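[Q] Does anyone have a clean structure-token version of this?
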Amino acid sequence: MKVIKNILMLYSILLFASTTISAQGKGPGGNMKQRFANAQFNEVKRALQLDEATTAKFELIYKEYLTELGKLAQGEKERLGKGRIDSLTNDQAEKIIKKRFQRAEQMVNIREKYYDTFKKVLTPKQILIVYQTENRVVRKTEKEFRHRMEKRMERKRMYK
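[A] Here you go.
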């Protein structure tokens, strides 16, 4: 049950980060999705402490994996705040829930697919480290995003 909870949490955060990043698009800092993927890979690489040859093999697979997860998250446009949920009918809410279940299932399928691919380069223990590091990076990103949003809201209140 905890694994499912972690997967759903990771999916939600990746979905949130992906939607936020895609909304920013390309700017002076380059492609945000690519920068996020690079930063996430660097954290995973640091945690695994792999040799150069293994790192090179793993990097290609891992970035492909992140791209596939990102594509899954791109279709998710629904941001449901409290007011928005209140305005939904039960049928609409049920459709949203079922759609989220489908996406979570697709995410699990992607992870299972890449688990077999990861095993060609990494040990199962190392793969666990990858997943733990992903969760840590996503939590850190979410915390930073919240912090920035709070600062933005404070500035808005100050200038009103």
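[Q] Thanks! Anything notable?
[A] The CA atoms of residues 151 and 157 lie 10 Å apart.
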